[in-house]
């Protein structure tokens, strides 16, 4: 397994990435075994993959611990992965080696992708609500410009996001998941949501991992900061970054949506 890494330069785009350094080794606890297999993402984006064809060159530019990129590699797609967190890239590299697949990996912010990845891609995926780590409209546009620069002519960018307006309307304070058990450990992931007064203010989700070891409980906490935006703002920022065609699966009553831009 060849691992490619690059230094991430200091700057606004890197501000969110340090959040994941301590979290990276434990990030897998957020996923059930089914989600960790990558199958849900493959099903969700089957239409994009079918349109792209089996020879498509794909970049997962928010690859995290490698779940989706590895699932694509197992299907013989030519896939690369990038992430702004060195810790996440290390975990993705380990997972790819364990899965015995080849996934070139780069540690890079979105803005710096043109300097850090080789060639152009038919599809770029930016999933996991990752674009919400850009701190304002200008930073998001620069990030989207960096992504667009590595797309081939006619290539597609696929973004998913939380529906922040719906989430703020419901204001669910706690989101517990199911207990996971791996390698003799049990873990219960819980999201603790904090809602500031203003929509545009940073929103912190405190991710709690509750470990149970023979009745002895311990808790680890990882605060993750997001910067909400409306779907209209995302579309406008995509347009400012040079995208002209959009397919939107937004519904005001759903907690998430997908946008395909080209």
Question: What report would you give on this structure?
Answer:
The protein is an alpha/beta fold. It folds into two domains: 185 residues, Rossmann fold (3-Layer(aba) Sandwich), CATH 3.40.50; 60 residues, N-terminal domain of TfIIb (Single Sheet), CATH 2.20.25. Helices cover 27% and strands 29% of the residues. It has a seven-stranded mixed β-sheet with strand order 3-2-1-4-5-12-11, covered by helices on one side. The protein starts with 32 loop residues before the first helix and ends with a strand.
Helix content: 25-40%
Strand adjacency order, main sheet: 3-2-1-4-5-12-11
CATH fold type of the largest domain: Rossmann fold
The Rg value, from CA coordinates, equals 18 Å
Count of extended strands: 12
Strand content: 25-35%
Q: H/E series, N to C?
A: HHHEHEHEHEHEHEEEEEHEE
- Give the overall form: globular
- What oligomeric state is this? single chain
Which spans have pLDDT < 50 for at least 5 consecutive residues? Answer: 1-14
* Overall average pLDDT: 93
Q: Kindly give the count of domains.
A: 2
């Amino acid at each position: 397994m060849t691992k490619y890494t690059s230094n991430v330069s200091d700057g606004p785009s890197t501000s969110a990435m340090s959040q994941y350094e301590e979290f990276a080794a434990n990030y897998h606890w957020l996923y059930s075994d089914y989600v960790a297999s990558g199958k849900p993402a493959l099903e969700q984006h089957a239409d994009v993959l079918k349109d792209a064809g089996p020879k498509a060159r794909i970049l997962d530019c928010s690859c995290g611990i490698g779940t989706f990129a590895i699932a694509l590699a197992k299907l013989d797609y030519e896939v690369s992965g990038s992430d702004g967190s060195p810790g996440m890239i290390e975990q993705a590299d380990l997972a790819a080696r364990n899965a015995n697949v080849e996934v070139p990996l780069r540690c890079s912010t979105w803005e710096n992708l043109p300097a850090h990845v080789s060639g152009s891609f038919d599809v770029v995926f930016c999933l996991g609500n990752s674009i919400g780590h850009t701190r304002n409209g200008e930073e998001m546009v620069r990030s989207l410009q960096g992504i667009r620069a590595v797309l081939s002519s006619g290539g597609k960018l696929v973004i998913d996001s939380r529906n922040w307006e719906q989430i703020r309307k419901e204001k669910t304070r706690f989101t517990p998941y199911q207990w996971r058990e791996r390698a003799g450990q049990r873990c219960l992931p819980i999201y603790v949501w904090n809602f500031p007064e203003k929509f545009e203010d940073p929103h912190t989700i405190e991710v709690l991992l509750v470990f149970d070891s023979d009745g002895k409980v311990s808790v680890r906490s990882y605060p993750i900061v997001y910067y909400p935006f409306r779907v209209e703002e995302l579309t406008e920022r995509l347009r400012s970054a040079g995208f002209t065609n959009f397919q939107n699966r937004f519904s005001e009553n759903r907690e998430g949506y997908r946008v395909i831009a080209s």
